[in-house]
Amino acid sequence: xxxxxxxxxxxxxxxxxxxxxxxxxxxxxxxxxxxxxxxxxxxxxxxxxxxxxxxxxxxxxxxxxxxxxxxxxxxxxxxxxxxxxxxxxxxxxxxxxxxxxxxxxxxxxxxxxxxxxxxxxxxxxxxxxxxxxxxxxxxxxxxxxxxxxxxxxxxxxxxxxxxxxxxxxxxxxxxxxxxxxxxxxxxxxxxxxxxxxxxxxxxxxxxxxxxxxxxxxxxxxxxxxxxxxxxxxxxxxxxxxxxxxxxxxxxxxxxxxxxxxxxxxxxxxxxxxxxxxxxxxxxxxxxxxxxxxxxxxxxxxxxxxxxxxxxxxxxxxxxxxxxxxxxxxxxxxxxxxxxxxxxxxxxxxxxxxxxxxxxxxxxxxxxxxxxxxxxxxxxxxxxxxxxxxxxxxxxxxxxxxxxxxxxxxxxxxxxxxxxxxxxxxxxxxxxxxxxxxxxxxxxxxxxxxxxxxxxxxxxxxxxxxxxxxxxxxxxxx
Length: 477
Ligand code: NAD
Description:
CATH superfamily of the largest domain: Aldehyde Dehydrogenase, Chain A, domain 1
Number of strands: 23
Oligomer: single chain
CATH topology of the largest domain: Aldehyde Dehydrogenase, Chain A, domain 1
Strand content: 15-25%
Number of domains: 2
Largest sheet: 7 strands, mixed
Distance between the termini: 67 Å
CATH architecture of the largest domain: 3-Layer(aba) Sandwich
Radius of gyration: 23 Å
Bound molecules: nicotinamide-adenine-dinucleotide
């Protein structure tokens, strides 16, 4: 049992203003495994004040990028050394299979941190341009106090997409973990202290959505960075619009994997284990619409059904597990409800279904629907669980049209023996990323969404620009 009765504010452990607590429940055992304070508006006030003070008067924004990068480098070194601890903890709090956790919940966030620490040396922080009346210095300054609000599915990764560029830019941060997965923030706070992140530069207040909304509109905040559902992103975007406050929004997805006529069946189906089912399907970029050519539809359906039926579903801490439990009973209900909707819509279950693989824990059998048309709700709405839809197409143009016929535009992939042709097809897909014969998020390339999948980009130099204001200083010859 991991019990925390403090909040990380101003570089130390502060007593919360209220008495409410958040119980963290293991999705595998359904038992309470941790407890943290349930942050209140008064706690947010204090955290914003600490971040404000550190930004307005503290050393952090005044240090050189290289000096800040050195601190990030130290944090990255601690992270690299202790990442197994992080992977185990996140698996315990939200049910990610340990093999995925080691990579996606721990190694990847550390790589993002290291990437931004390294980028500081190459990034153009200032340049000189010839102006009409004389030279102009164009400088990049930190945007200020950042509110970072992130979800439970990949908590350290979605946090690090914000934290690492914000910190290297010279911003200070108030981070709000989700109530489902707040424990990993405590580990990171300890590491930040060890690495010498100055007081007030990083603050954590776990809390629910109302207190999150309070943070978004707080007068002491200069920028909001959010990962989560499209519904929440819309309301945060509205609030930021009223305030003219910059916001980066990484939202939901319903990405398509296009299997072309010439795709190798074995590698394609194996690739879906990661591209479509990573993290129990609780991944915004999961490719849950699989588009198969009519000529190969039955063959692909058989292979996909077989692969998904053979997945090992169980204790997420077990290294043999491929699919763990969903984060909460609420999520189990939601995913099972979509399986019922798919049945009612006339789609055919070819793997999984409503029989639960285990009595205890919030498990749902990984499920594949065949005979799906793109207008069904199971093809249009984000399910956020291990449920795939297999949609037939007639021609390649038809496949591109179906892939783009979505409110979302986050990820995607093309599977083909002809990689150059795959790249041409990927160019036609209206999403922020589209892989060929794989799907991966690289720290040095931008990630984000078109349409209802969000605004702005994280990762890469683009992700750093989101935490900078550009200032021009012209002067006479
Ligand atoms: P959610 O939107 O309910 O919550 C996400 C976070 O925002 C939580 O910390 C929550 O407390 C907070 N929150 C919710 N409403 C808020 C509001 N109005 N104001 C301020 N804070 C608010 O999402 P969830 O169910 O926790 O997470 C799953 C969703 O996240 C999925 O839709 C998924 O697609 C999305 N997601 C997107 C990405 C991406 O990069 N595009 C990555 C991971 C998850």
